[in-house]
Structure formats: structure tokens, C-alpha cells
Specification:
By secondary structure, the chain is mainly α. 79% of the residues lie in helices and 0% in strands.
Length: 128
């Protein structure tokens, strides 16, 4: 028997999950002295994007859902910043950074679309 929560069906959540897993694989190549610094921060921020989308999806009102999605967008930007830090430290190549930024841009586009959808739903509800 396969039990799923509604957020698992979101294409956005699936993309973020893949991105998060790619980040987790990447940091395995970093020096051990980064374990409690950059590795910890980048893992936390990348995991936060999915967690915030899921938490927002579980909220009852559209304003709450929107709030958590906006926070997820902030965590995504934080993750990209940490990826730039990893490039600056010489842990990843320019091509790797480019590929991660491309994936993040796609996620940002999906997230912005989801936020717009939720805002329309909120506005429709308020008109009624």
C-alpha cells in the first residue's frame, strides 16, 4: 500500500527533492573540515525548501500557504548563495555551479507560479 501526502504530488516539490538530493551528493566531496560549516549550512537550506513547501501545503489558509512558499523561495536563494561560496572555495567547478543555478532557476519559476496560483485562489475566495 502506498500512502502519500498531497504535497508529494506537486511537480514543484518533486523538483526540489531532486535538487536537494543533488546537493547532498555534492557535499560528500567537500573537505571534512567543512562538515560543521558550509556542508551543514547548505544541507539545511536545501532541505528547508522542501520542508517549507510541505508545511505550507499542510496549512489551512491561502495566506499561510503563500507565507511558507515565500519563505521557501528565500531558502532556495540561500542555497544558491552557499553554492556560490562552494565555487569561491574551489570545491566545485564553474560548470557545476552553472548547472545548479539552472536547476534553481527552474525551481524558482515553478515556485513563483505556485505562489501566483495560491494568490489567485485567495483572491477568488475573498471576492465570494
Amino acid at each position: 500500500m502506498n500512502i502519500t501526502f498531497g504535497f508529494e504530488e506537486l511537480e514543484l516539490w518533486k523538483k526540489v527533492r531532486s535538487f536537494k538530493n543533488d546537493v547532498a551528493e555534492l557535499v560528500k566531496t567537500f573537505p571534512s573540515e567543512e562538515k560543521f560549516r558550509l556542508i551543514d549550512q547548505i544541507l539545511r537550506s536545501s532541505r528547508s525548501v522542501n520542508a517549507l513547501i510541505a508545511e505550507g501545503h499542510g496549512r489551512f489558509t491561502y495566506p499561510d500557504q503563500i507565507h511558507f512558499c515565500v519563505q521557501a523561495r528565500g531558502s532556495l536563494a540561500e542555497t544558491v548563495n552557499h553554492l556560490i561560496d562552494t565555487f569561491d572555495e574551489g570545491y566545485i567547478t564553474e560548470d557545476q555551479l552553472f548547472n545548479f543555478k539552472e536547476k534553481a532557476k527552474e525551481i524558482e519559476r515553478l515556485l513563483n507560479g505556485y505562489i501566483q496560483f495560491l494568490r489567485r485562489k485567495r483572491d477568488e475566495l475573498n471576492k465570494g
